[in-house]
Write a structure and sequence with these properties.
The chain has an 8-stranded parallel β-barrel. The chain has a 6-stranded antiparallel beta sheet with strand order 6-11-9-10-7-8, with no helix packed on it. Strands 17-18-19-24-21-22 form a 6-stranded antiparallel beta sheet, with helices on one face. Helix 4 links the parallel strand 12 (229-232) and strand 13 (259-262). It has 2 domains: 8-105 and 208-390, TIM Barrel (Alpha-Beta Barrel); 396-479, Golgi alpha-mannosidase II (Immunoglobulin-like), CATH 2.60.40.1180. The protein is built from 10 helices and 24 strands. With 480 residues, the protein is α/β, with parallel strands linked by helices.
Length: 480
């Protein structure tokens, strides 16, 4: 559930060194995380993947193995054992922090047996176009999970539960093979003609057995882990009707809100609106357009900041927007690399943390750093988190009226002592903005909480102040 001024922490980055004890590390950090003002954590995928001890989590093998069975060369996952995972969730809960599980239902990898079946090759650039006659292929589509011995579920997967796969073991050919009598789903993204197929053995969400098994697993998972919500992976590749049904069923079953945010990776705001409509508002979405606007602003000092929020969920559907600066896919070296430059990171976090719209998600790599690439934590990020927790309340006034100098104020409210703030940022030279913060602040002295600007200013009798900002910087002005 989104709390007032709630913050999600994405609790991992791609190159995390874990020694298979990350759940213990996070459990020990629970109170510190809560003290920062973080109200929910998105934990990485907790089930056994094809990569065993090194699997980040998206090459899913067995959804029922949370680090309990000797599969793929390890009992524990990259992050630890099932007991440690459950304890981590409990410790976070005791600290008042909710947990969101990363749900990866699009595909499976690392099958236990091969099956020989007819299939048709399709074009990489247009998945609707068949480029071969039907041929016999040998594919990794039989999942029996021998080490688990049917504990928790006796469901076994075979080729009828999948629509396609990208490797023929008989010939070593890498191509997209659409399996016999299968059709791609129509309510998916239109990239590549039809973006149902992404990777691995692609689940067939038109198969009633698949739908039923995913629902049964969802019930088992929520019951077993006591999580509070979900981050849904790769939703643009999955029949939109499936997640609407899956979420509604689980929410009705548990009589719980079970917050959900989907990853629909597109800069096209209309596609995001359409998905929210197709799922009848069952899930929020990550504000991908905003991320790319922040990246552009960080790399181009001529970017027009006054249009920063145009075409974003933050502006057009704030109640469904989960805002973020970066994540495990956008960090250096990853598939969607689009990392926001360090010089603009503080400004970017001010935008997602100190405004009233959206539900911000802070990236682990920005809070703790990314040693793999010698990237330090974002300067002042903990101060920005505290400012959201203590100061970012009340009526908001926007001053997005200049291409290179923008700002906004929050008047504060009576429930939070000395709350209220003025934020001003620039991607060029130093400047200042005259902004209204409320007559209740008249005569008060204000300072920059980030220490980027060392002046002190007074609020006039009319509730206005002239708030300066240094070159290519951000200042957050609060009562002294």
């Amino acid at each position: 559930m989104k709390k007032i001024n709630g913050i999600i922490l994405q609790c991992f980055e791609w190159y995390l060194q874990t020694n298979q004890d990350f759940w213990n590390t996070m459990a020990s950090q629970a109170q510190r995380i809560a003290n920062l003002g973080i109200t929910a954590v998105w934990l990485p995928p907790a089930y056994k993947g094809v990569g065993g001890a090194n699997e980040v989590g998206y090459g899913v093998y067995d959804l029922y193995d949370l680090g309990e069975f000797d599969q793929k060369g390890t009992v524990k996952t990259k992050y630890g054992s099932k007991e440690e995972y459950l304890n981590c969730i409990m410790m976070l809960k005791q600290a008042g922090v909710e947990t969101y599980a990363d749900i990866v239902l699009n595909h499976k990898m690392g099958a236990d047996m091969l099956q020989t079946i007819p299939a048709t090759k399709v074009d990489w650039g247009n998945h609707n176009r068949e480029v071969s006659n039907q041929q016999t292929v040998k594919v990794a589509t039989k999942f029996t999970f021998p080490a688990r011995k049917h504990k928790y579920s006796d469901f076994e997967w075979n080729w009828t539960h999948f629509t396609g796969i990208d490797y023929n073991n008989a010939t070593g050919e890498k191509a997209i093979f659409k399996l016999k009598d299968k059709e791609w789903s129509h309510t998916v993204d239109e990239e590549f003609g039809n973006f149902d197929y992404l990777m691995g053995a692609d689940l067939d969400f038109h198969n009633p057995e698949v739908i039923e098994e995913c629902i049964e697993w969802g019930k088992w998972y929520v019951e077993m882990t006591k999580i509070d919500g979900f981050r849904l992976d790769a939703v643009k590749h999955i029949d939109s009707g499936f997640y609407q049904n899956w979420l509604t069923t689980l929410r009705n079953h548990f009589q719980k809100e079970l917050f959900a945010v989907g990853e629909y990776w597109s800069t096209d705001i209309q596609k995001l609106h359409r998905y929210i409509q197709e799922t009848e508002g069952a899930t929020s979405l990550f504000d991908v357009p905003l991320h790319y606007h922040l990246e552009q602003a960080s790399k181009d000092e001529n970017a027009d900041l006054s249009k920063l929020l145009e075409g974003t969920l933050m502006k057009e559907n704030p109640s469904k927007a989960v805002t973020f600066v970066d994540n495990h896919d956008t960090q250096p070296g990853q598939a969607l690399q689009s990392f926001v430059d360090e010089k603009f990171k503080q400004s970017a976090y001010a935008i997602i943390l100190l405004r009233e719209e959206g539900y911000p998600c802070v990236f682990y790599g920005d809070l703790y750093g990314i040693p793999h690439d010698n990237i330090a934590p974002v300067k002042n990020i903990e101060t920005l988190l505290q400012l959201r927790k203590e100061k970012a309340y009340g009526v908001q006034h926007d001053y997005f009226d200049h291409p290179h100098y923008i700002g906004w104020t929050r008047e504060g409210d009576s429930d939070h002592m000395r709350s209220g703030m003025a934020v001003v940022l620039t991607n060029q030279g130093q400047g200042e903005k005259c902004m209204y913060i409320g007559t209740q602040h008249a005569g008060k002295q204000y300072i920059d909480a980030l220490g980027n600007c060392e002046r002190e200013i007074s609020i006039g009798e009319d509730g206005y102040g002239v708030f300066p900002v240094e070159e290519k910087s951000v200042s957050v002005w609060i009562e002294k």
